[in-house]
Design a protein that fits this description.
Helix content: 40-55%
Radius of gyration: 20 Å
Strand content: 5-15%
Length: about 325
């Protein structure tokens, strides 16, 4: 724990990656040993990451890593595998604590994936680029002028206060263009008190404004989407989505996981029972490697635990033998 950042959460200094497996490990270690410090480290880190600029506060989902130690300025790319294993960590935290804060984050990430990263046939896309119109992060940042144009004065001020938006910009690249990366430095109970309201009313207002900004942002030039469908990363996302379907009793996630596995088995498994590596525009190819088998098997096991359909276990055993 000497690499642990007591102040900002996470491990090491800059750049900081959202290494989900660290937190899943700490939560499981707490469960086995009762070491409360391990759980506290995981909780502090998971909250700091969700509150930072490394999390897309308007459209949800995690960027790839933070260029600084305080989770503020991300490398703006979004990767499928990060969303998948972070969902697992937030589900672990939810099951450990019963705090719906963590289940809400898992839901936000999965809603982002189903909305923006899912092909019509059900497979999951790989990534979204960091830049649009040749500029890193341009899609994700806001100036005070933009907020004033979209929102009425009170709502604009509310958003600026909640998300630490400054007239002159709030990040190193943003000072030139007066742009801001929305991020939280207080939790919702502190903010609700600051605005003299209940947490419920505060959240409602925040969501109303956030959706307004999201809808406007949808009309911006989007970062390029990497629409390759990779077997291993799909296995990871299916495992996360199926587990969330079970833990949160959510049919949408259950359906998304089943549909994605159907796609994978139809398009990325050969007649001889081996897996291919990738699919794009109707064409599958490349020989699968160990990751592809391991993560597809994980997805199959989580699907079995979701709906007890034995075909998933049978396929998992066949893949295991092949592997």
């Amino acid at each position: 724990s000497n690499r642990y950042d007591n102040k900002q959460g996470g491990f090491g200094s800059a750049p900081k990656f959202p290494k989900a497996h660290d937190y899943s490990f700490l939560i499981k270690y707490w469960k086995q040993t009762g070491t409360s410090h391990a759980l506290a480290m995981a909780e502090h880190s998971l909250k700091s990451m969700r509150n930072g600029g490394m999390y897309d506060q308007v459209g949800f989902g995690f960027h790839r890593y933070s260029t600084d130690a305080r989770w503020l300025v991300p490398h703006f790319e979004k990767m499928l595998y990060d969303q998948a294993i972070l969902v697992q960590a937030y589900l672990d935290a939810y099951q450990a604590t019963g705090d719906s804060y963590y289940s809400t984050v898992a839901e936000e990430i999965l809603d982002y994936v189903l909305r923006d990263m899912t092909s019509p046939e059900g497979g999951f896309y790989s990534a979204e680029d960091a830049d649009s119109e040749g500029e890193e992060g341009k899609f994700y940042v806001w100036s005070v002028n933009q907020l004033d144009e979209i929102l009425d004065p009170e709502d604009s001020q509310f958003f600026q206060t909640v998300f630490n938006i400054k007239k002159g910009g709030n990040w190193n690249e943003g000072f030139r263009h007066k742009t801001n990366i929305p991020h939280l430095t207080k939790n919702s109970s502190q903010l609700a008190r600051q605005f003299n309201t209940t947490e419920e009313k505060f959240s409602e207002r925040l969501n109303f404004i956030r959706e307004k900004l999201f809808n406007v942002r949808e009309n911006r030039v989007h970062p390029q989407k990497d629409d390759k469908i990779l077997t291993d990363w799909n296995g990871l996302m299916i495992a996360a989505m199926a587990r969330a379907g079970a833990v949160l009793n959510n049919d949408r996630y259950a359906h998304g996981a089943v549909k994605a596995m159907d796609f994978l088995l139809q398009n990325l498994m050969k007649k001889d029972g081996s897996l291919m590596k990738r699919h794009r525009n109707g064409v599958s190819g490349l020989t699968g490697v160990l990751d592809d088998y391991a993560f597809t098997i994980w997805g199959l096991i989580e699907l079995y635990q979701l709906n007890y359909d034995e075909k998933y276990l049978e396929i998992a055993m066949d893949l295991s033998e092949y592997q």
